[in-house]
């Protein structure tokens, strides 16, 4: 077993063997989660705080379930509505929570790099649940697990990531992870939603979705993040759907056994046709949600093991 | 009072020379130069430079001082002490204070307060009232009271009609306008230069073209009005052709750049290090090298620190939310030595940009070693190595990107009008 990280701040900091370790452990938790009695004791006695500076229902629920199934005391802080409004800084909020001696801190924040900053100031393990348009590592890991289970491997696949790449932390974490695992990555979308410098990231870029989907093993659709936009990136939803929405016609160009993914929540009829999202032969969207809980359990478990080991060394007086 | 600096390495940016010699100062003014071992005149205080470098003091154009409004970040006294320790003998202060320097009364206030500083302080005034880009300030009164230039700082006057009127009016008074070339709409919210780095780190970014567009507009207005104009910072190679064309067309245009854009690039931000957040943001390595070349060619006239003190709270934030800017009065000279040791610039070339050119552009007598010039001098060892500790800086604020950096170039003495303002030993 190899997993050295103290925090899970991004995929960028993980080595391929650490990714494999985490996914293998997550497989065990998939099995556990399918049983009637879903309790494990990996986090027994530990305190997990979910600190969301940005509203989220799905991710927060996933982390909460993951922590509870592993036996942790889980607390949710909707920070977006509390101390920030009273003028408290991010670091002060973090220090306040840190003083309550949590063991695991799950953080989402609207600014890129905010979770890195926070991790420097606390002495518990920190998981990035999404920071600005930077990274969302557990999403990429759950996508990886979903792909590995559906396609039998996580290497040498052609993965098409389609939609609002520029504003998407999901896309960034995924392209880093899939790149580390030696897959061929295609980015598809209008130029207004393509990040600057994308051409230097070792990916292929397609404006034309049909060309980009040709022969793809995995089709990863992204949410059109309207709430993130200053406005004016695309002319209309209907033109977007016509050119970049995933429908049966376009999907027919991908490999015959290609799977369709979406991180949710979906805008049916904007980036994806509802019948495709619901097609159990192609869509793995519900699997992604299931894998999400298992991957987060694995991440919490591994970080807790490293935290215990670190504290054990500190207690034994070893220099850490 | 007669001072005799012997055994010096003299840097004369006007003559373009770097030679061993001695320098004679009488009553605060330079009397002349001579051989290194020239005998001191009777009654002179002799300062044996022991081979160290003696040059005109630096003129740092565009320094933010926290008075009025933010004295906890920097006062005239603390800025002046930092300047003296950094070999800066004239500080050109920015008007982007709170409130801004946009009335004769405000200018009188800072002029009075500036007496706290041991170095020369000259002031720029705002170009528009409250720096809001709607009405021009009293350029005439402010000029009479000693404002050396007019600028709204990094706030771009986006109303081109108003800016053209400001320029026309300034031309009638022969006043200098300092612009910040930037297309404000494009650069809104940006904290980095667009490209692979900013995209992977998810930092809101702006294309270098925003600077080119801002420059193109401003130069068109300069051509229209004929005013004297200076670009505070030109930082991208794509902006250089327009600058060269304007120069060739005979427009009265000069340009500056910050020392940070000449010595750092976008990758230095690393893991969201907020001390590396600047306006404009740090650029690509290609751009940085092109700008060093532009300084060498004289297309970029002025190097300055754009000293911008920020307290710890303004920087202990996520990158895009952190305040931009760095202190630089005390690190301008050692950072410039990087360009000498590694960038292929000679000391006379550097001193043209650090001292002579800003003096000439702002109508100051300093920046020269010739007879009659004020004895504003810096004595330093360009090779002396040290590791910078930000808490050892004399500024009230410690936000420097060079914390922990290995640097070369140690100031051992600074004189303003022949009076020693820094350094004990010779």
Write the layout of secondary structure elements.
The complex is a heterodimer of chains A (320) and B (426).
Chain A: H1 16-33, E1 47-52, H2 58-69, E2 73-77, H3 90-98, E3 104-109, H4 114-119, E4 125-131, H5 137-151, E5 158-162, H6 169-180, E6 184-188, E7 204-206, H7 209-213, E8 218-221, H8 237-244, H9 248-251, E9 259-261, H10 274-277, H11 285-315
Parallel strand pairs in A: 1-2, 1-3, 3-4, 5-6, 5-8, 6-7, 8-9
Helix pairs in contact in A: 1-5, 1-11, 2-11, 5-6, 5-11
Chain B: E1 2-12, E2 17-26, E3 29-34, E4 45-48, E5 53-56, E6 58-63, H1 76-85, E7 88-93, H2 104-113, E8 120-123, H3 139-144, H4 160-173, E9 176-179, H5 184-187, E10 192-193, H6 196-201, E11 205-206, H7 209-225, E12 228-231, H8 240-248, E13 253-258, H9 259-263, H10 285-297, E14 302-304, H11 312-315, H12 332-341, H13 347-362, E15 377-387, E16 406-416, E17 419-422
Please, could you describe this protein's structure?
- Chain A: Catalyzes the condensation of carbamoyl phosphate and aspartate to form carbamoyl aspartate and inorganic phosphate, the committed step in the de novo pyrimidine nucleotide biosynthesis pathway.
- Chain A is an alpha/beta fold.
- Chain A is 39% helix and 14% strand.
- In chain A, strands 7-6-5-8-9 form a five-stranded parallel β-sheet. In chain A, strands 2-1-3-4 form a four-stranded parallel β-sheet.
- In chain A, α4 (114-119) links the parallel β3 (104-109) and β4.
- Chain B has a single domain, classed as Alpha-Beta Barrel (TIM Barrel), CATH 3.20.20.140.
- By secondary structure, chain B is α/β, with parallel strands linked by helices.
- In chain B, β16 and β17 form a beta hairpin.
- The model of chain B has no long low-confidence stretch (mean pLDDT 97).
- In chain B, α4 (160-173) packs across α7 (209-225) and α7 (209-225) runs parallel beside α8.
- At the A-B interface, α4 and α6 of A face α6 of B.
